[in-house]
Amino acid sequence: MMSSWLVTEKRSWPEWLALQVLKVGPIPKHLALIMDGNRRYAKLHEQETFHGHIAGFKTLTYVLAWCRDLGITEVTSYALSIENFKRSKEEVEGLLSLASNKFEEVLNEGENLAKHGVCIRIIGNLDLLPTYLRAQTAEVVLMTRNNTKCFLNLALAYTSRDEITAAVRECAIAISEGRLQETDITPRLLEQCLYTAQSCHPDLVIRTSGETRLSDFLLWQSQFSCLFFTKVLWPELSIWHVLGAVFHYQRHHHTVVAARKQAKLLYDRYELEADQACSPDDPECGCDGTKARKIRVERFIADLVERREKTYHALSTQLKEIKKQQQESCEQEQKSEASGRVRVIGECGERVVSVSVADPSLLKRVQQRMLLEAN
C-alpha cells in the first residue's frame, strides 16, 4: 500500500496473462463507474451502512490500480448523487464526513499524486455541499491540476439533469446579455458548458449490484458508450470483473466507433447550419458571419472557464481561512486548559486537578487552599 489513494499490488500470473492478452485489443481510454451496492454489502455482513461506504472506497482504490495496469487513463466515479441527499440524515452525514476525510488525505499526499501524475477533478453542483467540503474539493482540484498522466473525476452532488440544466442556463443568460445569439447554440457548445468539458466521453460504463440503469449519470456523455452491468456488489468487485468488462467493450468496440463517427457528422452539420444562420453584416467581422459566431462562442467559453477558476481560487482561500481559525481555536482551548490545571505536591503524593478558573489571582488562592488540604 503506497497511500490511501494509490495502491500497488503484485499480479498473479493468471492476472498478468489476462492483462497482456487484453492489451492486444482496443483498451478504453475513459472508464465510468456507478458504484452500487455498498448498503446491501453492509447489510449482508451485518454492519452499519457507513462501513459499506468505507469498503466501497477501498474497492475504488484497487480499481484505479487495475486501470493503471490496463492503460486506462481516465476514470469517472459516481461518488454522490443529488438524490442521495434524500437518504437518512445519519447516512448523508456519514457520506459527507467520509468524503471530507478522504479529501484531507489527498491534500496530505500532493507529492505522491504529482509523482504518479494523478489529476483529480470534481464534477457536480458544489453549492449543495457543506462549506468546508466545498473548499476542500477546490483545493484538491488546484493542487493536482498540472498532473497529466491520469485523471480521476469524482461526481459529487451530481445528476445529469442538473448538469444539463446548468449548461442551458449559462447559454440562456449569455443570450439575454447579448454575448451569444440563439443560432450560436449547438450540441457541441452545450458540451463545452457541461461539468465534464475537459474530458472525453466515457468509452465504457460499469454498474454493479445487478441494476441495469444509469440513474441520471453521464446521460449526455454516455450516449455512445459501451454499457456493462454485473450483479456483484461494488465492495466485492474483483479485477476479473473489470477485465470481463474490458473484454465486453472490445467485442462491441466497432459499433461504438461507428456511432461516434455518425455523431461527429451530425454535430458538424449543426455547426454548419449555425454558421449559415449568422448575420452577414456583423460590425466586428465585416461580412464574415461564420467568423463572428466563432469569436462569440470562444469568448463565451473563455468567460465561463475563467469564472469557474475564480470560484475554485475563492474556495481555496476560504479553506485556508477556515483552517487558520480552527488552529487558533485549538491553541486557545489548549491555553485555557493549561491555565485551569493545578499541580499539587504534598504528603499524599502528587495530584493534578482541573478547574475552570479565568481569574489568575483566584487560581492562585485555589492552589494554596489545595496545598494546605494536601499537607
Automatic annotation (TrEMBL):
Catalytic activities: n isopentenyl diphosphate + (2E,6E)-farnesyl diphosphate = a di-trans,poly-cis-polyprenyl diphosphate + n diphosphate
Signal peptide per UniProt: none
Keyword Transferase on entry: yes
PROSITE patterns documented for this protein: UPP_SYNTHASE
Keyword check for Glycoprotein: no
This enzyme's EC code(s): 2.5.1.-
Superkingdom, taxonomy of origin: Eukaryota
GO BP term, pick one: polyprenol biosynthetic process
GO cellular component, one term: endoplasmic reticulum
GO molecular function per UniProt: ditrans,polycis-polyprenyl diphosphate synthase [(2E,6E)-farnesyl diphosphate specific] activity
Family annotation (CDD domains): Cis_IPPS
Keyword set, alphabetical order: Magnesium, Transferase
InterPro entries reported for this sequence: UPP_synth-like, UPP_synth-like_CS, UPP_synth-like_sf
Family label: Belongs to the UPP synthase family.
Protein name: Alkyl transferase
